[in-house]
């Protein structure tokens, strides 16, 4: 994104923010009109909207402003609207506790976290095989020596609830939402929780799980019609067995199911919409269901 947006700026309150890229290097600056604080951008998080993690005096900060495709510029980072900066450092960003730094790098990159140790210099952008398939790197090294015994643990036997918890390591879990008492549309992006409160989610039916609709080895499919077959795997059946329960068929349509039953919700302060994974019959004008 920075390569195509070489000069970004925004005035937020009494502070001016600039994100500039030149000769392949990007900087993040904040000014109060008298003094300016400028730091190099070394770590970028996000594929569409992007937030920067900055380092100053041995501490890590989440940039107070982020880039959003809508409005194609800088705006306050989601969740940071409540912050009132009193100096340039606070205006630069929110200081992150070390546990949160580990979480950020561990879910947006690979190879940077080992136990409690954090080494951002080792980060590989995105997720590699090892992130989900523990032991994959050793397996690849051994297979080069014709040793195929060190196979990573198979994930095929995980049921729907276990898959939600597995994906929830980064996407957050049902338990995390309840424990923190999170409510409201800001948490529509916690897909495992929203999916699990759906009436049709029973925890052991492979037809309704993260992996039933999403292939983690492929980019997200934005074609809503491609998900129809997933919905009809339950709602298109007329018979049931002890392991596959037939659900009611939709009397309205048999296509574009998610456009009605998984509506998009505006993320407060996020300049983006998220698909609500709480599968339900949606009534026009009803408030966001918590």
Number of domains: 3
Q: Residue ranges: pLDDT <50 for 5 or more in a row?
A: none
Mean pLDDT metric: 91
Shape annotation: globular
Strand content: 15-25%
Number of strands: 16
Task: Give helix and strand order, one letter per element, not per position.
Answer: EEEEEEEEEHEHEEEEHHHHHHHHEE
Number of helices: 10
Keywords: Signal
Protein name: Cytochrome c-552/4 domain-containing protein
Organism: Telmatobacter sp. DSM 110680
Could you walk me through the main structural features you see in this protein, from its secondary elements to its overall organization?
The chain has about 290 residues and is α+β, with helices and mostly antiparallel strands. It has helices at about 90, 100-110, 130, 135-145, 160-170, 175-180, 190-195, 210-215, 230-235, 255-260, and strands at about 5-10, 15-20, 25-30, 35-40, 45, 50-55, 60-65, 65-70, 75, 95, 110, 115, 115-120, 125, 265, 270-275. It folds into three domains: about 5-95, no CATH class; about 100-145, no CATH class; about 160-275, no CATH class.
């Amino acid at each position: 994104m920075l390569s195509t947006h070489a000069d970004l700026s925004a005035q937020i309150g009494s502070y001016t923010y600039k994100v500039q890229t030149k000769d392949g290097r990007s900087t993040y600056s904040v000014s109060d009109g008298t003094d300016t604080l400028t730091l190099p951008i070394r770590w970028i998080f996000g594929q569409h909207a992007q937030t920067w993690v900055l380092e100053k005096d041995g501490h890590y900060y989440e940039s107070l402003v982020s880039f959003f495709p809508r409005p194609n510029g800088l705006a306050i980072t989601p969740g940071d609207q409540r912050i009132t900066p009193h100096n340039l450092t606070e205006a630069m960003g929110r200081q992150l506790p070390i546990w949160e730094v580990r979480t950020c790098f561990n879910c947006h990159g690979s190879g940077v976290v080992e136990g409690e140790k954090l080494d951002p210099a080792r980060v590989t952008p995105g997720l590699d095989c090892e992130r989900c398939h523990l032991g994959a790197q050793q397996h690849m090294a051994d297979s080069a020596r014709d040793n195929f015994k060190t196979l990573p643990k198979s994930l095929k036997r995980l049921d729907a609830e276990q898959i939600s918890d597995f994906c929830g390591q980064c996407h957050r879990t049902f338990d995390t939402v309840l424990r923190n008492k999170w409510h409201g549309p800001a948490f529509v992006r916690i897909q495992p929780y929203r999916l699990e409160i759906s009436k049709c989610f029973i925890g052991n039916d492979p037809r309704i799980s993260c992996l039933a609709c999403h292939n983690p080895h492929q980019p997200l499919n934005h074609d809503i019609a491609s998900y129809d077959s997933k919905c009809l795997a339950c709602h298109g059946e007329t018979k049931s067995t002890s392991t596959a329960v037939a659900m009611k068929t939709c009397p309205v349509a048999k296509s574009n199911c998610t456009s009605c039953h998984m509506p998009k919700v505006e993320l407060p302060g996020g300049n983006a919409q998220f698909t609500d994974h709480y599968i339900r019959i949606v009534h026009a004008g009803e408030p966001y269901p918590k």
